[in-house]
Amino acid sequence: MKNMDWFKTILICGSIVIAGYFVGNMHRTGKKYDRFVQVKGLSEREVLANLAVWPMNITLTGNDLKSLKSEIEQQNKEVYEFFLSQGFNQDELTAGIVNINDARANIYDSNLQNNEYRYIAKSELTVRTGDIKKLQKALTESLELISKGILLGSKNSWRPIEYIYTGLNELKPSMIEEATKNARDVAEKFARDSDSEVGEIRIARQGLFTINDRDENTPQIKIVRVVSTIDFQLRD
Question: What values do phi and psi take at 21, rounded to 5?
């Protein structure tokens, strides 16, 4: 009976020792896992826009609706033919609606009611192309339309031409790789300063990709940017 009591005591003590070992080992492992460094990795690319959209208005004024209709149709035709002569195809040109407003019908603006011209006509045309150089050349050459009495203006005065970059999906893999490498370089510098080594990635958070103009004067040149936040494990 006493032998059984001793056996139970030894078994309980052994269980406590083994449990203590595993608890201590888990604590050491947990503390080791808590040793990490969080860093950011940057990747940037300078790219050229591969799509341009130029929405424009042709504006005319007059007092006779019939004459105004004929004039706006004639000017629409001349502007359309101008862009065809610049090398654009019909798929790149989209004609919009024609709006004719009666200025004197505006009872809330007395200045408009006394306007010399009663009717204001605006016709829309949009150029959409992937040939940026061709569009910029046409923009310069469009001054010749003024000599024909055609008032051609951009629909969006704050940004006459919208330049767009559509190749982001092709850039993403290499940029994410570069951002991760840059983040590891920063982590390794931190690890050297703390007498540690960089281990595996603990957590990785990919930032949002942004596409912005390089500057206000060259909107056709874009800066693509991404910042990734990565936690690297540290080890002795």
Answer: -65, -45
Number of domains within the chain = 3
Domain that holds residue 3: 1-34
Check whether residue 155 and residue 169 sit in a common domain. no
Q: Are 83 and 147 members of one domain?
A: yes
What are the start-end ranges of the H helices in the chain?
2-33, 65-85, 110-113, 132-141, 168-193
Q: Return the DSSP state at 149.
A: T
- Concatenate the DSSP letters of all residues of 23-74 into one string: HHHHHHHHHHHT-EEEEEEEEEEEEE--EEEEEEEEEEEES-HHHHHHHHHH
- Residue 230, φ and ψ in degrees, nearest 5: -130, 135
Q: Are 36 and 234 in contact (CB under 8 A)?
A: yes
38 bridge partner residues: 231
- With contact defined as beta carbons under 8 Å apart, do 50 and 165 qualify? yes
Of the residues 110, 129, 163, the one at which a domain ends: 163
Q: Are 143 and 117 in contact (CB under 8 A)?
A: no
Name the residue type at position 221: I
- pLDDT, position 219: 93
33-92 pLDDT, tens digit each: 467 888 899 999 999 999 999 999 998 888 888 888 889 989 999 999 999 999 999 999
Whole-structure pTM value:
0.75
Instruction: Mark whether 64 and 139 lie in a shared domain.
Output: yes
